[in-house]
Design goal:
This protein is an alpha/beta fold and 296 residues long. The chain is 40% helix and 16% strand. Helix 3 packs parallel to helix 5. The longest helix has 15 residues. The chain is globular, with a radius of gyration of 18 Å. The chain starts with a strand and ends in an 8-residue tail after the last helix.
Amino acid sequence: METRTLGKTGMQVSVLGFGGVQIAGQSLTTVERLLGSALDAGLNVIDTAECYGDSEDLIGRAVANRRSEYFLFTKCGHNDGEELPDVPDWDPRLLEASIDRSLRRLRTDHLDLIQLHSCSLDVLREGKVVRVLEKARGAGKVRFIGYSGDNEDARYAIKMDVFDTLQTSVSIADQQEIDFTLPAARERNMGIIAKRPIAEAVWTQQNVEKNDYAYPYLERLQTLKYDFLNNNDSVDTALRFTLTVPGVDVAIVGTANPDRWHQNANVVAMGNLPQDQYQSIRAVWEERADQHWLGQ
């Protein structure tokens, strides 16, 4: 599988990364098969979060014995009430406890990347959360620190010049950050991680509810009306589009289907989209997108 350098971290990451949110609640046998097949296919990035149910624990139990084969990313900031029920989100005590708990759950002595999980601009301005991450890095618990989020919050995080990476929304239905956020991150040589790179493939789903977080993507695609969405390879085109966006180093895709990873590996082996196809998708966005469509 193709690898790219994750910005200033120097990590050579596979262009396809595994997203841990969808394995929450799955059996250990399923996760072992899923992650095993992903690693065997050449994937070397696993990205999860402290608030993704039992995702961290399942990852640790499934592949801790292969720790040297992958880079391990997680996120912190939200209180699930498990250890410090009375401590608010973003409290430094919560973040410190969260990082230690992630290490235990993931059965590792270090994280390759810890990310603030959709932290607001106001919290960033206070600076306390960044100091917790820097302290963890100094103690050897984490190698690099990053920010995960979108829009004005993400742009402020970039300007702080303290983060090694940015994880943000990039897809055929979410191109706002391509114009307004990624250029500044690239100027600072930040590693760029694309979240929701296929917009949840929402156009392939049946009966998407209005309260589903992917529903806004469905509404957007009904306006954008890309001509390729009815093709059998539409999901493949969407993934390759995101990986063609200048600056994107790795796209995080989640699945609970153990067989999907071989298919994904075959898709990324095809490389970037031809420039004329990439530019036509960008042109549709520029022509039809609502200026109020922010990063999701």
